[in-house]
Design goal:
Layout: E1 5-7, H1 16-31, E2 40-42, H2 44-53, H3 57-64, H4 69-85, H5 90-107, E3 111-117, E4 133-137, H6 140-152, H7 157-165, E5 175-181, E6 187-192, E7 200-206, H8 210-213, E8 220-224, E9 230-234, E10 240-243, E11 251-254, H9 257-260, H10 267-284, E12 288-295, E13 298-306, E14 324-326, E15 328-329, E16 334-342, E17 356-359, E18 375-378, H11 386-394, E19 398-400, H12 405-408, E20 414-418, E21 423-426
Parallel strand pairs: 16-17, 17-18, 18-19
Antiparallel strand pairs: 1-2, 2-5, 3-4, 3-5, 6-7, 6-12, 7-8, 8-9, 10-11, 12-13, 14-21, 15-19, 16-20, 20-21
Helix pairs in contact: 3-4, 4-6
């Protein structure tokens, strides 16, 4: 019988059918000699064993085939509460806690608990930001809760909506878990191995990368040629930092004024990340999106997944005579529609089919409306945020990091969004 827990750098961990593409990709990259943090993987079979032991399979099968939305929500709630509130069975819990103790003994760091669903990080279905990750876990109790929360995330409303759009039955899949040490990052970010013009793109912010993933800051943007040469450096507006120190829970702090507009990376670091990005693409044999972190010992590769990009679009010349703003392109599509300027999520009901959403922060929670909008413009965020990943796979034009977009674009005007060039225009006097 296969062990339900294996080291991240083992050949077994490369099996996406057991550990999910997120963990399997990390294992493949680690075995290729790339700087992937230490860690271990909990087999998706552990999730299945837990569901069986708790008698939850009837609820699982009832969610996808429910006759009404109310029945679906009830079945999903039974799954979430059952997985969160009941103890983990001994045959899973005992080796899980022992593996955690060994990881802490080796690294001396707090741990990160990350979902690795069997259906995520695939081409066309990244599930970016739809599941759960927990960083800086210190106590054993919190660690156990984090593992159960990753299992339960398979039944979260936003994940179920996403699965429905891809005709995926949640009862027919499972959740693996990836556990790694927390990287005490001085800077973090993402990268795209291929842009619309054939180059590469890096993003960076101070501290941990969750601020980029959640679209909370406008990160630095570093444009590289296909050969890895630096073409452009666009310094972002990084007004807060999700920081960590050794054995301390990460906290969100205001960035010192001098750091807000200071580049996070120097030339040597940019070039090194460009080489790493190209190497990941070579190993995975496809264009890729990565997440990375930089600590005092160097660059750490946190994730690699398939990347979907499109060629540029030539807009109607009439748009060239109207006001424009520029930002970070998600990398796909061109569209036009009526601008709906929204200040908070409670106003999303104002956004109708075919509208262009104009907002301040474009976090993963907005994934629920991507199916009805013609495009998205946000004041914060960058090309490697979770919502940008979802927009790419859904074919929704998006431009992020557009300074003062909600103030300068009038509500109700006609807007065009070029998600490849990163340009937003609206009908008005030039």
């Amino acid at each position: 019988m296969n062990s339900i827990i294996v080291p991240l750098d083992s050949i077994e961990a490369c099996d996406a059918g057991r550990f999910g593409p997120k963990a399997a990709n990390q294992a493949i990259l680690a075995r290729a000699g790339l700087p992937v943090p230490d860690g271990f993987c909990l087999d998706a079979e552990a999730y299945r064993l837990q569901v069986s032991a708790l008698g939850l399979w009837p609820a699982a099968r009832g969610a996808f085939g429910a006759a009404t939305d109310a029945q679906m929500r009830s079945a999903a709630l039974d799954m979430k509460l059952g997985l969160l509130d009941r103890p983990i069975i001994a045959e899973v819990l005992e080796p899980l806690l022992e593996s955690r103790r060994q990881l802490i003994a080796r690294t001396g760091a707090l741990v990160c608990v990350r979902s690795s669903a069997l259906v995520e990080d695939r081409f066309g279905s990244s599930f970016a930001g739809q599941f759960e990750s927990f960083i800086g876990i210190e106590s054993e109790e919190d660690f156990v809760t984090a593992v159960k929360s990753c299992w339960a995330a398979l039944w979260a409303t936003r994940a179920l909506r996403y699965m429905a759009t891809h005709d995926i039955d949640p009862a027919g899949t499972a959740m693996s878990v990836l556990v790694q040490p927390l990287v005490s990052a001085r800077a973090s970010g993402g990268g795209l191995s291929k842009t619309a013009d054939g180059g590469m793109l890096l993003s960076a912010t101070w501290g941990l990368g969750s601020a980029i993933a959640q679209g909370e800051v406008t990160p630095d943007r570093y444009v590289l040629s296909a050969a890895g040469d630096i073409v452009e450096i666009d310094v972002g507006r990084k007004d807060h930092i999700v920081g960590c120190t050794h054995k301390a829970e990460p906290k969100t702090l205001l960035a010192p004024k001098a750091m807000m507009t200071t580049p996070c990376l120097d030339t040597t670091q940019i070039l090194a990340l460009g080489r790493l990005l190209r190497r990941v693409a070579e190993i995975m044999a496809m264009p890729v999106e990565i997440e990375w972190a930089l600590d005092e010992r160097g660059i750490k590769l946190l994730q690699g997944r398939p990347l979907h990009m499109e060629a540029g679009h030539q807009p109607d010349p009439v748009w060239l005579h109207h006001p424009r703003l520029s930002g970070h392109p998600a990398g796909i599509g061109w569209s036009e529609g009526v601008a709906r300027v929204v200040s908070c999520e409670c106003e999303l009901e104002r956004v109708g089919p075919g509208d262009i959403l104009v907002t301040k922060v474009a976090g993963p929670a907005l994934g629920q409306i991507l199916g009805r909008v013609a495009g998205v413009v946000a004041e914060r965020g960058g090309s490697t945020s979770h919502l940008a990943s979802l927009a790419r796979e859904r074919g929704i034009p998006m431009v992020l990091g557009v300074h003062e977009a909600t103030e300068r674009i009038p509500d109700g005007v006609r807007v065009s969004v070029d998600g490849v060039a990163g340009v937003v225009r609206w009908m008005g006097n030039a």
